[in-house]
Structure formats: C-alpha cells, structure tokens
Design goal:
106 residues, two-stranded antiparallel ribbon, 1 helix, single chain, mainly beta
C-alpha cells in the first residue's frame, strides 16, 4: 500500500508481530505494549518518513508514549505489519433462503 492509502480512523489488523527495535536499559525496555497478531486497531495518526521509505502508525488502543522506569519513548509502528480490516456486509437473505429450503419458518 502507498502512503496515501492509510488514514486516521482506519481500522487495521496486525498480520505480523515480529517487531524488533526495543530500547533496553538494564531490566527496563520500551515499548511496553506491542500489537498482537490478529489484533484489530484504529489508526490515531500516521507519518511518512521519506528517507526510510515508510509509513509509521500510532493507534488509539495503544498509548503512544510508553514508559518503563527511566525509559520513555513515543512509539510508532511500521505499516507493513498491518493490513486494512475489510468488513463485509452480510445479507440476511442468504440465511433466510437456507432456512426456507429446510422447511423452517424464518
């Protein structure tokens, strides 16, 4: 997906939870909360970083600023770990037809 395909408020699903790039200091590390595989999230904001050729996302469901002991950072996630959530509208007529074939009142 290109940078213009992402937008604030878009729901996405995590398709790869193999994140790296943790900052560590002794027993402390950030981020403290990462997206989980198959987790549905809502984009809070996005940033395009041309020199890294990437789109970076933050989410409503995950605190942007994460702190653990003396470490604190604003966390954004690379967009290639996510895909848009596609909601399919289900037509009730499909189920009504199945019930009618079975002789059940719908």
């Amino acid at each position: 997906m290109s940078a213009r395909d992402w937008y604030s408020g878009m729901q996405v699903v995590c398709i790869d939870d193999g994140f790296d790039g943790y900052a560590r200091y002794g027993r402390y590390s950030v981020p403290t909360r990462i997206p989980m595989l198959n987790e549905v999230l809502t984009i809070r904001e996005l940033q395009f970083v041309e020199e890294k050729n990437g789109v970076f996302l933050s989410f409503e469901e995950i605190d942007k600023t994460q702190t653990d002991g003396p470490l604190s950072a604003d966390i954004k996630w690379t967009a290639h770990f996510f895909r848009p959530l596609i909601s399919k509208k289900i037509e009730i007529g499909i189920f009504t037809a199945m019930l009618t074939k079975q002789g059940v009142d719908a």
